[in-house]
């Protein structure tokens, strides 16, 4: 949509309808500034690399996973490394990749994304790769003690990559899953 220069209000409405997220006018301006002229995956990766760290995993000549973190995200993690929340949004883009977000929280409970990853598949192998790249990009992760998540595959991967960390299930997702099961049983 950015490429075709739709109006700001159309773009904001489309993002809200598809993802339930509000974009400010400033967000739209920044998106257009950053991605307006991008035409290829190589250009996107180059653009991301110029502002932070990027790691990819490929097979059969196709990219399976893209991990990236901007310099300010890395600095935020280094300031608040203790608790990391992992969440994914299933197939939210035109190529069908899942978007993983790794979020750190400050001392007041405010969260900020410290790394994004696009994965073709949500399996243990790819999520483990994402977590290994998280360690590589962030540098020292010894102070990370807790991971909050809702995903069984992520739990297995965290146990492999961060065996010293405690795993906590996200209460929001647990309650939502419980509600779905209860209502499905009543139908």
UniProtKB/TrEMBL annotation:
ZSWIM1/3 RNaseH-like domain mapped to chain residues: 53-167
Official protein name in the record: ZSWIM1/3 RNaseH-like domain-containing protein
InterPro entries named among the record's database cross-references: Zinc_finger_SWIM (IPR052579), ZSWIM1-3_RNaseH-like (IPR048324)
Matching Pfam families: ZSWIM1-3_RNaseH-like (PF21056)
């Amino acid at each position: 949509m950015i490429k075709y220069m739709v109006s700001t209000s159309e773009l904001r409405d489309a993002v809200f309808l598809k993802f339930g997220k509000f974009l400010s006018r400033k967000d739209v301006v920044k998106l257009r500034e950053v991605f307006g002229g991008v035409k290829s995956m190589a250009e996107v990766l180059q653009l991301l690399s110029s502002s932070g760290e990027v790691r990819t995993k490929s097979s059969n000549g196709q990219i399976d996973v893209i991990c990236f973190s901007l310099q300010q995200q890395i600095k935020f993690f280094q300031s608040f490394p203790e608790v990391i929340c992992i969440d994914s949004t299933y197939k939210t883009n035109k190529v069908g990749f899942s978007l993983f977000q790794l979020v750190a929280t400050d001392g007041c409970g405010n969260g900020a994304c410290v790394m994004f990853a696009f994965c073709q598949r949500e399996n243990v192998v790819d999520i483990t790769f994402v977590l290994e790249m998280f360690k590589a990009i962030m540098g020292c992760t010894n102070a990370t003690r807790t991971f909050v998540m809702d995903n069984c595959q992520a739990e297995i991967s965290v146990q492999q990559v961060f065996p010293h960390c405690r795993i906590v299930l996200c209460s929001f997702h647990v309650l939502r899953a419980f509600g779905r099961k209860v209502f499905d049983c009543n139908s």
